[in-house]
Amino acid sequence: MDFTPLASKILRLKSLRTDRWADTGEDIQTAQLRSLLSRSADTEIGRRHGYGELKKLKDPRKEFAARVPMVSYEEIRADVMRMVAGERDVLWRGVCRSFAQSSGTSGGRSKYIPVTDENLRRCHYHGASYSVSHYLRQNPQSRLFSGKSMILGGSFDNEVRPADPRVRIGDLSATLIDRINPVVNLFRIPDKKTALMVDWEKKLPALVEASAYADITSISGVPSWFLTVIMRVMDRRGADRISEVWPNLEVFFHGGISFDPYHDIYARITDQEKMHFMESYNASEGFFAAQDRIGVPGMLLILDNDVYYEFIDMSDPLSEPVDISDLEAGHNYEMIITSSNGLWRYRIGDTVRVVTVNPVRIMVSGRTKSFINAFGEELMEDNAEHALAETCARHNAAISNYTAAPVYASDHKRGRHQWIVEWSRTPSDMRAFAADLDDTLRRLNSDYDAKRNNTIFLDPLEITNVPAGTFDKWLMTMGNGKLGGQRKIPRLCNDRHIADKVLASAGL
């Protein structure tokens, strides 16, 4: 039975709501902030900054920005860990028992983002329903609910063991699957037990078993993860294209990493006459945006999802943040959020490019810091620098210059990281050095470790040696033949535009 017509009627009303955002967006955002302040007035942070007074203001935006400082995770880590320990009314009202584990910073291996009941319902699930509603509105011929949706998620595996067994810490996707409306389970695979398995060496065959003969109409997840599963399913069925296995597959709801490196691969293995790709901006901190136009770049910023947004123009990083009313199309901004998960004026580290302003559509343009997140590993420059320093010390080696970039997965090979290195003291055993560096990165970064687990999603890193002077030669090409102290080597890059030019400078 096809339930799509019924779902379309119900969800159409939701998508129609966004048509008014071009005119009412500022009012919606002001109301969101007032609601957040009101519900948190009696929390510890609410009393600290006088939320009880702010909530009474008709427009609290300016006073809110004056009273409440912007913060990074390290500045709230201690408060979050108190929440993990069971303290109530710290950053948000009540007790929070769900936390999304994400890559750490210099203060720790991982971050633990609170996922409160309100945040889960009003932000994450709310945003996901917008994504589906816009797809159905754009594709009236859809038969999305005539088959199964395959949702690929993580697990509750983590490095913290809370005293309260009711506290769950793990991938955000694990929480979303664990607490999803039971009705949704009628239309999705795999079952919850399989979806939440920790050991990917066992989980991957179970995913293949659950999906190889199923009628899959949609898939949802991270492109790199799903490609691994899809290739295994194709091998199981002896197929050259996944559309031969899942002939009714019509949409991929993707997010987490850039889809650009994977588009050609997915285009080759799916039926392009019926296949659609819908991007979403769903982070551990919240579901912020969803694509509302098939085939048109840009995601609609979700304005009624218990999130108040501020933006810092990256052309002037020291400027004061602005709200959505002062955004300019074509500009890149660092995004600051205030949300019902207890993150107040929180710097999530993402930059977005504004595509349109009425309504606000955005594209994720990068991170505020150097990083690689081509496979969901979220490797930060701080992790890389620490790992490299430790490994060099153990191998009596020294590096003059380096940069690292992803090598993307192909039809027959997994992705990996390539480290391009100019040595001042070369290690005696390059293979042992590379293995040690890989192991150190796994120890320092939980997301990298998860993707490297059993080499299912990500192969070991490789090191490419280049001659002395290579990086200077590359810098000269970037600076019209001149070197300068302000021209720095990007240590990590999320694409290959720098790595390939450095290799070309080395004649490789």
Notes on the structure:
There is one protein chain. With 508 residues, the protein is an alpha/beta fold. The protein has helices at 4-17, 21-39, 44-49, 51-54, 61-67, 73-84, 117-138, 172-178, 192-195, 200-211, 223-237, 242-245, 260-269, 381-395, 430-444, 446-452, 470-478, 497-505; strands at residues 98-103, 110-114, 148-151, 168-170, 188-189, 216-221, 251-254, 276-283, 286-291, 299-301, 307-313, 332-339, 346-357, 360-367, 371-372, 379-380, 398-407, 416-425, 462-465. Strand 15 (371-372) and strand 16 form a beta hairpin. It is 38% helix and 22% strand. Helix 17 (470-478) crosses helix 18. The chain contains 18 helices and 19 strands. It is globular. The strands form four sheets. The chain has an eleven-stranded mixed sheet, with helices on both faces. Strands 2-1-4 form a three-stranded mixed sheet. A three-stranded mixed sheet has the order 17-18-19, with helices on one face.
Topology:
Blueprint: H1 4-17, H2 21-39, H3 44-49, H4 51-54, H5 61-67, H6 73-84, E1 98-103, E2 110-114, H7 117-138, E3 148-151, E4 168-170, H8 172-178, E5 188-189, H9 192-195, H10 200-211, E6 216-221, H11 223-237, H12 242-245, E7 251-254, H13 260-269, E8 276-283, E9 286-291, E10 299-301, E11 307-313, E12 332-339, E13 346-357, E14 360-367, E15 371-372, E16 379-380, H14 381-395, E17 398-407, E18 416-425, H15 430-444, H16 446-452, E19 462-465, H17 470-478, H18 497-505
Parallel strand pairs: 1-4, 3-5, 3-6, 6-7, 7-8, 18-19
Antiparallel strand pairs: 1-2, 8-9, 9-10, 10-14, 11-12, 12-13, 13-14, 15-16, 17-18
